[in-house]
Specification:
The protein is mostly helical and about 80 residues long. The protein has one domain (about 5-75). Helix content is about 70%, strand content about 0%. It contains 5 helices and no strands. The longest helix is centred in the first third of the chain and has 14 residues, at about 5-20. It is globular, with a radius of gyration of 12 Å.
């Protein structure tokens, strides 16, 4: 897996914006923390990525469950 981490983070955030999560992102620390954890998956060995995604699915902020499920399915 290759690419620029900065541009990957930008693309992830654009997807968050398209799901109307901009305001919650700025107001909810748990959502920000979850997003940062998701973005950090790119730093893991490829063999650990699926397990990390499943873990993040299990700890997602329930208030934004629908949006996060959509986010994960296309990321």
């Amino acid at each position: 897996v290759k690419g620029c981490l900065f541009h990957y983070g930008q693309a992830l955030f654009r997807k968050f914006v398209s799901l109307n999560l901009t305001t919650p992102f700025h107001e909810d620390e748990s959502l920000r923390s979850w997003f940062r954890s998701f973005a950090a998956i790119a730093l893991l060995p490829e063999t650990d990525m699926n397990e990390a995604i499943e873990y993040l699915r299990s700890i997602k902020p329930l208030l934004y469950e629908k949006e996060i499920d959509s986010f994960i399915s296309v990321s």
